[in-house]
Design goal:
10-stranded mixed β-sheet, 3 helices, single chain, elongated, mainly beta, 41% strand, 388 residues
């Protein structure tokens, strides 16, 4: 009985070494030796037993403690996936992918020693007898950028797992606005994690309508924004510390019909090249023109990562390059007293009974249909037209 009890204590002690990371959740990962933070910048990599090597440079390392606070690529979801031989396996996810997603391997996270009073961990993967530990190859702490590698020894293989917490002094996620108009500050955010406002005064908007005459209609999305949902963030101020997000939670905001798009990656590395060309004809970015918040032409070659943008489906339908951002009330007020459909676009003509009479003609040609009262439509816009 005593021997069995001793065996049980030893087994539990060994198990706790692997189980000490805590609950599944959102973390930042920081090298305990070089103090560089990890960012997921791509979704490619490999783990090759035949050559005893692995390629993990999708993970980039940077030291700046300020940049990390507002970069979505620095936020990882760490989750338990199975239990084998008293060792818990984990997946580390971010940017709509995960370690298992591009390496086809789960990892082990093993408790190690304390450094600077904080608990550190080893992160490693094993396959067919081959074990590789993740580390920072670059030891020079004065250099901003590190180099992720599996061929590292010593303390540069040790990592901190820092829970992302909106109430934390130095491990929160906050939005740094890039656009200001009308005394308010905005950011076009595309993040792979769900979130809601933590700081007071923050709002999130989706786009529900594009008007060919130069307007987009926004709708506020309240509650928890679903992961991978591009939104316009209205910030409380200009500093990220006052624009904090509470990351995680069950999505509850209605974002159906959202016309915004977004991408996670913009990586120009030779091995990890992963970019989306910016089409200046059909893509628009959040900016300011004549003091108004607009989606206008962007001076980009590639879509910036983790940013929302507007995709025009058929550029031939639009008479302007800029689209003023409006609420539904502002939109109705702006266009209620003006001609709703320009003469330069083809329209569909209906009778009062809803029957389609003619499709693809211009307003000036409706008179050829004879006297009467017609309904003409262009997209979602319609108006009455009398031919006398």
């Amino acid at each position: 009985m005593r021997r069995l009890l001793l065996y049980s204590i030893l087994l539990l002690s060994a198990f706790s070494v692997f189980a000490d990371l805590g609950e599944d959740g959102y973390y930042r990962v920081r090298n305990a030796s070089t103090k560089r933070f990890a960012y997921l910048m791509d979704n490619k990599g490999w783990f090759d037993v035949a050559t005893s090597s692995a390629e993990v440079q999708a993970l980039e390392l940077y030291r700046d403690p300020v940049r990390v606070l507002s970069d979505p690529a620095s936020v990882f979801y760490v989750s338990h996936v199975d239990i084998q031989s008293s060792k818990i396996s984990y997946d580390i996810a971010g940017q709509r992918t995960s370690v298992h997603g591009f390496l086809d391997e789960y990892v082990k996270i093993m408790k190690d020693k304390k450094i600077d009073g904080m608990q550190s961990y080893l992160v490693y993967a094993s396959k067919s007898g081959l074990t590789k530990y993740l580390g920072d190859r670059r030891s020079d702490n004065s250099v901003e950028k590190g180099l992720s590698s599996v061929d590292v020894s010593g303390d540069r293989r040790l990592w901190y797992f820092l829970p992302v917490d909106a109430s934390s002094e130095d491990c929160y996620f906050g939005v740094s606005p890039t656009v200001s108009a009308g005394g308010k500050h905005y950011y076009p955010l595309y993040a792979a994690f769900p979130f809601k406002a933590y700081s007071k005064g923050m709002k999130f908007y989706i786009i529900t309508r594009i008007d060919s005459r130069g307007a987009v209609v926004i709708k506020e999305a309240e509650g928890v924004i679903p992961e991978s949902t591009p939104v316009i963030v209205e910030c409380s101020g200009q500093d990220a510390s006052g624009n904090r997000l509470d990351i995680g939670g069950k999505p509850s905001a209605s974002t159906s019909g959202n016309l915004l798009k977004g991408v996670c990656f913009d990586n120009n590395d030779v091995i990890h090249y992963n970019r989306t060309p910016f089409d200046k004809k059909s893509m628009r970015v959040l900016t300011v023109k004549n003091g108004k918040l607009v989606f206008g032409e962007g001076n980009y070659d590639f879509v910036p990562r983790n940013q929302a943008y507007l995709q025009l489906t058929d550029v031939s339908q639009y008479n302007t390059s800029d689209f003023v951002v409006m609420t539904e009330e502002e939109y109705k007020k702006e266009f209620s007293a003006v001609e709703t459909i320009p003469v330069s676009v083809p329209v569909d003509v209906y009778g009062l009974d809803g029957r389609l009479i003619k499709s693809g003609i211009f307003k000036d040609d409706v008179s050829s249909l004879g006297k009467g009262l017609y309904i003409i439509r262009y997209g979602e816009v319609s108006e009455k037209l009398i031919v006398r």
